Amino acid sequence: MSSEKLLERILSTGVWGIKKTDLKKEFNLLDVDTILEDLSKSGNICIDKKGASYYCWTSEAYIQHIVNSDAKFRVLFESINSLANKLDDQTKAVKDVLANTIELFSDNHNEKLNLNAPNSNIGLESFKIEFDKCLTNISDSIGWIELCKVRSEITNKHEMSQRVFYDLVDQLINKYQEEYELSTGGEEGIVVRGLIHGYIRCIQVN
Amino acid sequence: MTYPYGLEINPYPSSPTPSISDSKILGGKTHKSAKNAIVSCIKDLHSKLDKIPTDKDFRLITLIQDVGSGKTHLALHIRGLTELSENTICSYVDLSKVAPRNITNLYDAILGGFSAYDIEKLRFALLNIAVKHAEKNARNAKRLLNYGFKDRIKGTPILDKVESVMKGSLKLNYSYLRETYSEEFSELEIEIIKSLIDNKLKSDVENIRSLEGVVNSLSAISSINYKILREVTIFQFDEFDSNEESLGLIKAIINAHIPSSILMLMLTPSSYDEIRTQNASVFDRLEKANYKIDLAGSSTFNELLDIIFEYLRFNDHYHMFDSNKENDLASQIRIIYDEFPEFRNVRSTLNIMYHATEIAVKQGSVIINEEAIDETIKSVYPGLKIKGSLMGVPLSDFIKIRKAANDINIIEPEIRDAVRNLLSCTNYTGNVKELNLDSRLGDGIDVVYNDEFGSKIAVSVILNSNYAAANAQISNISKSLNLVDKLLILTNNNTISNINANSSMNGGSTLVNMDKTKIIDLIYFNNKFKNQEIMNEDLLKSITLAKSIKLC
Questions:
Q1: Which among A101, B89, B486, B497 could bridge B118 via Cys, Cβ 3.0 to 4.6 Å?
Q2: A206 to chain B nearest CA, in Å?
Q3: Which of B223, B220, B211 lies closest to B253, judged by CA?
Q4: Cβ atoms of residues B349 and B377 within 8 Å
Q5: Cβ separation of A199 and B273 shorter than 8 Å?
Q6: pLDDT single digits (tens) B229-241
């Protein structure tokens, strides 16, 4: 309690500080020397000579006192501050980059797991245009086409793996349910109800 | 027992493949159009037949569609149509049942494919010919019918003999068969007439030695039918495939152009494709079919819905299935259709409806509700899960929430609440820190917290289908970025697609698109959270959900 009272008193004097002798007069019932030595050792206060007397400051107030009174220290202090700010900025930037990288890895991981966004440079809408064009070109009298023929046609034009192709077909069929229909059979295709659906056609719904 | 909508029976078929009785009901615009096309083909041929049909009077119809799309149902429906019962006789052959596929078995299946009604019709007409001859005092006909001296004395009408033969209580005197029918029928036809009258048509199989023999016999049956009934003979072959024997038979029938007959083939696109590679000659003939019946769109939502409703309407004698109930059921079926690609075909949908109807009865429900459908999916398809749902939302809850989730304005406050509660949950598990739920943090900011790296993150929920409004909201919220390290905007599908194209977002912002499944997951989580029902397993799922929308 006694050290707290002393600390509060020192704190109240701000950048001016307080004379050690004044403290002894004010707190004459306390062992001021011992308490001040403990506070100094713990880094809460600084004791230094100002003029002919010894003064006490809190650490922050002492730094401000030196900055005000010592030109060399002020220059040094400002340089250190600027360096610290730069370091802070850079740390923050590194933290952001790290967070983004983690996010990116997480996205890629999810894509691999969910197969929601195939790793292809062709968007779903562009794929639809290509796909529909293929269905029109390959189409026979009954309209049903083997998906592997469409795949061969599209993957020849665009760099795309078989898996990515079928991921896109799956998305396309789910998004435009009323435009396409699938049929079982074929060597490759989309698995529905455990059956390979390797035939497709556009539905001309009136 | 009363079924939902006051029905006296479960209207849906329970068998995995359609039976003749199931096929009485035909729903769906596409299926009805296909039926009309086939009926029109039959009537057209019938109207063009002269006294002696020629090889011009033959038609080929193909029906190519996927398994479970209603081909068999349509074929059986055609076979049972009252409007065609006076125009046609029909043999339905399911080729999948014919094994081994040889000439004898195929012919046996064709003869067995005629309905008892058609056979009776032919027998009766044939016996009537004998009666007419007998009435004109033809001795051979009278002897054939065993109409003797005693009958004349008693004054027994000759027609009574027909009744006795039909009942099986009188045997004909076959020694006089040839003489009785030789004026109108050929030798081969008389052989078939004998087995027909004797009600042993299938016994003709024993006489078959070659493919030519089969075709000749089929021609004879068609000819007899036309001569005595003036009807068209339809040969339906279901599950037609690239089997060599089947292809040989079909090719022979097509080549023979059996007069006054229609050959109807039901096959899948893959079988059609296999025939293309295996037998170019048959494929070429199929390509030139008179009618290629198209069931395009047989598995679209509207088609399936109409089929489902047709069963209910057909049995709704008390008119309890009104438009409100139609809409309610339609919205539930829509969800099943959207969420489970497995059920996007007639057969699977009808199977669900059959079980859901039974379960609704057990639950004492007067309608087919979401609980009945949920229970059906759980019991009949135990392995099925809602696609993309991280919270494992039961189908019944999913249906209820999705119905309510259509209006973004209503669900936006709920999603905000859900995000706050989800963060409270993840704060509890230590995945996020220093959670601040104070809503006065900034305009549009819903919650602020620190992630595991110590970055300060602000979350804003923007659900808006209007691009301009969403963009304005996002611009406003982006101003808050200087207060935090990262701004996380949770938005819905429409917004993100628009914003991506016109984005002017700062680097520290992250847009997370929440699809409808995520939104439903959040609402489901929130309901459980508010009811204090989040258990250990749910907690893990909640963290996964939070991670999926980048909250932690």
A1: B89
A2: 10
A3: B211
A4: no
A5: yes
A6: 999 999 999 999 9
Q: Would the pLDDT of B101 be above 90? A: yes
Computed over every residue of chain B, the mean pLDDT equals 89
The C-alpha atoms of residue A131 and residue B126 are separated, in whole angstroms, by 59
Residues B409 and B462: their CA atoms lie apart, in Å, by: 10
Question: How far, in Å, CA of B48 to CA of B128, rounded?
Answer: 26
Nearest CA-CA partner of B273 in A147, A81, A11: A147
* Chain A residues in contact with B547 (beta carbon < 8 A): 106
Residue A103: its pLDDT value, please? 62
pLDDT at A119: 45
Contact B495, B463 (CB under 8 A): yes
Torsion, Cα B368 B370 B371 B373, to 10 degrees, reads 70
Mean pLDDT along residues A173-180 = 90
A204 Cβ under 8 Å from any chain B Cβ:
yes
Q: Contact, B110 vs B261, CB < 8 A? A: no
pLDDT number for residue B494? 55
**Option in B271, B297, B507 nearest A181 (CB):** B297
Is the pLDDT at A101 greater than 80? The verdict is no
Beta carbon pairs, A and B, within 8 Å: 88
Pull the structure tokens for residue A93: 């930037």
> With respect to CATH, is domain B58-294 assigned 3.40.50?
yes
Answer whether residue B475 shows pLDDT above 80. no
Residue burial A134-159, b: 16+ Cβ < 10 Å; e: rest: bbeeeeeebbbbbbbbbbebbeeeee
Mean pLDDT of B404-409: 78
Question: Residue B446's CB: how many other CB atoms inside 10 A?
Answer: 22
User: Which range is least confidently modeled, A74-88, A101-115, B338-352?
Assistant: A101-115
Q: What are phi and psi of B97, to 5 degrees?
A: -90, -10
Task: Dump pLDDT digits (tens) for B363-390.
Answer: 999 999 999 998 998 888 887 778 788 9
Q: Does the beta-carbon distance from B508 to A96 stay under 8 Å?
A: yes
Q: DSSP letters of B100-158? A: S--HHHHHHHHHHTB-HHHHHHHHHHHHHHHHHHHHTT-HHHHHHTT--HHHHHHT--T
The mean pLDDT of B296-325, rounded to a whole number, is: 94
Which of B64, B69, B241, B273 is most worth mutating to test chain A (most A CB atoms within 10 A of its CB)? B273
Domain range summary for chain B, segments of one domain joined by +: 58-294, 299-384, 408-548
Element (H, E) at A180: strand A180-183
Q: Which residue from B511, B544, B385 is spatially nearest to A113, judged by alpha carbons? A: B544
**Average of per-residue pLDDT across A92-101:** 74
ipTM reported for the complex, 2 dp: 0.77
Residue B255 above 80 pLDDT? yes
Q: Provide the b/e sequence for B12-22 (b: ≥16 CB within 10 Å).
A: bbeeeebeeeb
Q: Which comes out higher in pLDDT, residue B216 or A106?
A: B216
Half-sphere exposure (Cβ direction) of B82: Cα atoms closer than 13 Å = 2
- Which stretches within B340-453 are classed as H helix? 346-362, 370-380, 395-404, 408-429
Overall size of chain A counted in residues:
206
For residue B172, report the phi and psi dihedrals to the nearest 5 degrees: -75, 160
Name the amino acid, one letter, at A156.
N
